Amino acid sequence: MKTIESEEIMLQVGSALVSLDVIERFFICDLEKCLGACCIEGDAGAPVSEEECRKLKEILPVIWDDLLPEAKAVIERQGVAYVDEEGDLVTSIVNGKDCVFTCYGKNGMCQCAVEKAFREGKIDFYKPVSCHLYPVRLKEYKDFAAVNYHRWKICKAAEVLGRREKVRVYEFLKEPLIRRFGEKWYNDLCEAAEAYLKEYGK
């Protein structure tokens, strides 16, 4: 186990420090309840790498018709991403909160136009890894990454569903965690989580 000064205890897995919330808490996205609100709530866009930004520019013509007029205007004015107040590169937003890549499906459910195009076989890019990882957020440091669970009222239904199905955050996020850290790292995380929960389980 590892600590960062006065912050909470975290599990060290390879070069990452994992918050115990990621191990202990339950979570399964319940889109029927939240309607994809994480795409349109907040005060900044989703963090993206320079490579992801280039990819978003590349696929833009494919997803353009799915974007809202307001989003198109923002993209034409400032591009697919901008640098926020903290100096991070993030996706552009509309009205100070909505991701420009949001589109809407049945019942007003928010969808990611990038993910939609991927699922339709039109592009080979799923979506930015930070979106794929949510509700986990990464904080990159020089020598390690901090893996934290972001608790938010709009995801309350996901916590309820996860507890009912007995699926924890790290289990729900298996695919994006492997995408970001690799399969070996994820297997090591599972071993560390199982050992922790066996001894301190909640």
Overview features:
single chain, 202 residues, alpha+beta, 2 domains, five-stranded mixed β-sheet, 10 helices, 42% helix, globular, disordered N terminus, Rv0495c, DUF3109 family protein
Descriptive account of the structure:
It holds the Pfam family DUF3109. Belongs to the Rv0495c family. InterPro entries: Rv0495c (IPR021458). With 202 residues, the chain is of the alpha+beta class. It has two domains: 1-27 and 135-202, no CATH class; 35-125, no CATH class. Helix content is 42%, strand content 18%. It has ten helices and eleven strands. It has helices at residues 20-24, 31-34, 50-63, 69-78, 113-119, 129-133, 156-165, 169-172, 174-181, 183-200; strands at 2-3, 9-13, 16-19, 81-83, 89-91, 93-94, 98-99, 102-104, 110-112, 136-140, 145-149. The two termini are 18 Å apart.
